[in-house]
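Hi C.,

You asked whether I'd gotten around to modeling the 294-residue construct. I have! Everything is below, sequence then structure, no commentary in between.
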Amino acid sequence: MAKTKNLHSYDVKVGRRTIHLTELGEGFPVILLHGGGPGASGMSNYSKNAEALAEHFRVLIPDMPGYGKSTKGIDRADPFGDLADGILGLMHALNIPKAHVVGNSLGGACALRMALEQSRKVSALVLMGPGGVGTTRGLPTKGLNKLLNYYGGEGPTTEKLSDFIRNYLVFDGSQVSDAVIQERFRSSIDPEVVAQPPLRRPNSLGGALRMDFTRDARLAECTTPTLVIWGADDKVNRPSGGPRLQRTMRNCDLYVMSNTGHWAQWERAEEFNELVTLYLKQRTPLNAEQRISA
């Protein structure tokens, strides 16, 4: 792997928030949005992908609002919209008019909402097991319930986190080291996060409906080139969401990974990196490629 260029982390003021950002590589911008599990952050979710993608793109990896080193607190009435506003605001603050957006789980929901709200700013989407697909059309999965209940009851514990990650997040829990569990646990017990858990159940029927993209008429009108990647053994967000998105969206490709859970970019990193690089390079605006190569 080529040496990564210009890796650095810094904070960006976006309205009332501060968003912590890690940046590496050069070229057309690609924003990587992490999932919503306990202790999640940008670099921890994309530790196996950032350098590979940075060989071809300017890679921007924020801690989404509510997570990591970014400002805590999410609007429970419309969490996907609040997150999308935050990342679109980040693009504005960085003077980025258009970017590819890659999102896992909650990050996928944020990315899709960005495309529905301001399609001109999103040149292509890659969504890995995105949240909010048919969520009001059936009971939550056991994995999603585990995630949503993490801060309930006796509160966060390493046992609860290990159970979620090893038994529900990934297909083969033996591949997850104790170090990963401990790192995530330390992040999950940040007092600010405990006081305002970023991922909770909707607080109203209206909120629940806003969190289900299949209830949003704009989904069928979305023409943003979209690659949906779903683990066939995802126990958090049902894999049936993939075909539903492909049927509904106008320009959507679907790639299902066997023996893979909810963390496709980590579980099948090498294949993921090659697939996403090819997909995004083919959909990078021509004038941007010419400007990059000049």
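If it helps when you're writing up: The two ends are 24 Å apart (CA to CA).

Thanks,
B.
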